[in-house]
Each structure stands twice: as structure tokens, then as C-alpha cells.
Amino acid sequence: MTHAPAARRRHGGLTVLLLASFMGILDVLIVNVAAPSIQRDLGAGFSTIQMVISGYVLAYAVMLTTGARLGDSHGPARVFLLGVLGFTALSAGCAAAPSAAVLIVLRLGQGLAAALMLPQVLALIQVLFPREQRARPLALYGATLGLGAVLGQIIGGALIRADVLGLGWRAVFLVNVPVGLAVAACTPVLLPGQRPAGRRPLDVPGLLLTAVAMTLLIFPLIQGSAEGWPPWVWPAFSGSALTLAALWLVERRRERAGGSPLIPPSLFGGSGFRTGLAIALIFYTGNYGLFLLLAYVFQDGLHLSPLASGVGFLPLGVGFAAASLLSRHLADRYGSRVLLIGAVVMVAGYVILIATLAPHPAYSGPVTALLLAPALLVSGAGQGIVSAPLIGVVLATVRRQDAGAGSGMVLTANQLASSLGVAVLGALFVALLGADPQEAGAGLDERDFTAALMGCSWLLLALAAAVGLLARRLPHGDRPGTSAPAGTDRSARGSEQDGGN
């Protein structure tokens, strides 16, 4: 009789964790749709609005590994709740921001809160579910990350079109408040408040070096792309490389001395983890790049409204959602080879996209968006097959005591990929167009945008093929959901003994 309530509690806790994950990932892309409205309302320049968008990503990426380690030291449920409360309060602050400068500061705060909240999700999934039951929750978590990114376009466009209570763009931030409050209220009831295995001193040198390295890498990727790659970005990239080398030396010395480094160098000793991390970086780069390209094509090329542009993403989302549900069964049968299957489907989708765009159709905007739907449906299906099991497959390549750091690295790769996708594919798209897509008087028409999208689709196809080739190098026997984050081994074992309570 006790098993049913325990199962209900576990699944209620999973719902709370997935809602928080969806909220955090949604905020990465939902602001893109609102950017023109924010710019007009606050009288801000384009570079300032770029900082509103990128400030969140930058702060989140810089603090991710530290947030994961704080969860190990102070208990993931406690740090998760702190992150949720901070994220919710800062979302309300963003909605009330009187100026662009204040909004940028609040968005930086949102990113820091997300860095406390999101890394705890994987650790808490490991605590809630016995090892043999973790494949489905991990697949749902991977699917949530992808759906949050896809649906950000649709939800953002719908909120701006509805103009709820005359709030305009401010509604895209207020939507987080009721969700965040509900998650915060349920956390003490549904999520286990186990004590950490042991307090670990914070790796301050590792924290500082990581923050400097990530800032010198991600900020130039974001701003350099927006500003046409000015000369200052190259010294920044060099500084990032030097700082990463220093970080490696410091962390290796700390690990050899028996300390708890922020990023254990031994984590990269296994070829499976290195390959899995490369897959994550390449896969997410293509995904985020595709979202950017479609937003430009739909809104600036086809002149669709924000809501209609969001609807244009719907085939991508439908394919993603359906394939995510299927991916669990594929992962059970094929293990890490499921990533190869997803990559093949993605390649097929991009081939269909290129074939659709090759004649350079010059129909009305809605008709062109409809013509793109089959290609986006297939591409989304491939993304769903890869995204849902990806984190579980990567974690299956590392030791149990390294899984916490491993999950943090995968999330960091996700954020780095978002910047790479925008920078690389955005730069290629602008180069193929021959002008800034939002530049007045550039003389661009629909065919210019579809031709540029076709050119970028070849790169997307190459990235998908690279995912497939790398997936072939993963150990064949890996199954998602077989490891547990560092610092949670003791509590995870306890949850397996008592049914998850």
C-alpha cells in the first residue's frame, strides 16, 4: 500500500522539476520574440537589446558548474528552492523594469538564479528514482530542454499578440511568476530534503578561473557577432584559452591533492565522455542556430507577425514532441545508437529542406512557411530522438562519483552551443544575405532570405552528420539513467532501499 503514494510523490516531484527546467530554458528564447517591442518601448539601441538577451545566457553559463557544486555541498533541494525563488522574484522585476539598463541587471540576476536552480534537477531525479527507473525521467528531462527552446517562439509570439492587460512585452516575464510560485510551494512537500553527504569547501580559484574563461569566450561570441567581429574579440578568445589552460592546471593539482575541484580533470579521461560532450556541443549548436535562422526568415523575410512566426515553428515542435516519446523505447533497444538514428533523421530533414528551397519559391509568406513544414517536421523528429536520451547517454559514460560534474558540463555545453549557434550560423546567414536582415533599405526580398537559409542548411546538415559519426564512437552498451551525480550516492542508495521516500 505504501508503494502507490511513494510513486505518486516521485512523479509529482518530477513534474515540479520539469516545470522549473521548462521555465528556465524558455527564458533563453522567449525574449528573442519580444526584443523589437522592448527596444521600441524602452528607447534602447540594438546592442543594448542584445545584452538583454545575452546577459541571461552569459550569467547562467558562467555560474553553472558552481551552482552544481553548491548543490553537492548544501543539498540539491535547498539550493533548488533558493534558485526558484530568486528566478521568480527577478522575473517579476524584469516585467516592471523602467529602463533597459535596469532590465539588463535583472536579466543577469535571472541567469545567476537559473544557475542555482537548473543543475539541481538532474541530482534530484537521481535521488527520487531508483536506478532502474531513471531512463524515463531523464528522457522527459531531455525532451523538456528541447521543447522549451522550440515553444519559446510560439509562447512569446502569442503573449505579445494577446497584449494581456495591455502589458505588451512585459507579459513574457510575468508568465514565470505563477509557475515559479507553484514550483516553490510544492518543493518542500514533493522533493526530498536529504542532508548532503558532506560539506565541501568551495573551490574559489576554480570558480574565478571558470568565470573569467567563460566570460572571455561567450561574451565575444555574443557581442562579436552582433558588432561584425571587431578586433577586440580575438584577444578575448586568446585570454579565454590561456585561462582554461590555467584552470586545468589548478584543478588537476587540487584533485591530486585529494580536494574537490569544481571541474575534475579526471572526468575527461574517458573517451566516451569526451565524445558525448562533443555530440552535445555540436547538436545544440545546430539546434539554436536553426531557431535563429527561422526567426529571421519568418519575421524579416516572409513578414509574418510574431504570433504567425511562432506558429511557423509548430511543425518543428510537433515532430520533436512525438519523437521524444518514441526515443525512450529506441534508447531501451539500441542504447547509445539511438543518437545515430536521430542524426540520420535530422540529415533527412535538412535534405528535404534544401530540396524545398532549391527552386527559390517566391510565394506569399504563409504559403512559403507551409511549404517548409514537412522539412521542419522531420528535422524536429530527429532532434527529439537525439535530445531526449542525450544527457542520459552521456552520463552513462562517466563514473558515479563524476556524474554531477558531468551533468554540469553537459548543461554548460548547451549554453556555449547557444552562443556558437547564434554566432556562427548568424554570421553565415548575414554573409549569404549580403546585408543585415534588419537594415532599412537593404533591398532584400523573400528569395534572398530563402536562398540564405538554403545555404545555411548545408552547414546544419554537416553538423547533423557529425553527430551521427561521433555517435558511432560511443560504447554500444550505454543505457541512459545508469549513473548518479557526485555527492548524491549515499542518498540515492537510500532512496532505492526505501522506495524513493
From TrEMBL:
rRNA-binding is among the record's keywords: no
Protein keywords: Antibiotic resistance, Membrane, Transmembrane, Transmembrane helix
Location of region: Disordered: 477-501
Pfam families associated with the record: MFS_1 (PF07690)
Domain Major facilitator superfamily (MFS) profile: 13-480
Membrane topology: Multi-pass membrane protein
Predominant cellular place of this UniProt entry's protein: membrane
Transmembrane stretches, start-end: 12-35, 47-67, 79-106, 112-129, 138-160, 172-192, 204-226, 232-250, 277-298, 304-326, 338-358, 370-398, 410-432, 452-471
Protein name: MFS transporter
Entry's localization field: Cell membrane
The organism of origin for this protein: Streptomyces composti
Domain of life of the native organism: Bacteria
Entry-linked CDD domains: MFS_MMR_MDR_like
Bias-annotated ranges (Basic and acidic residues): 490-501
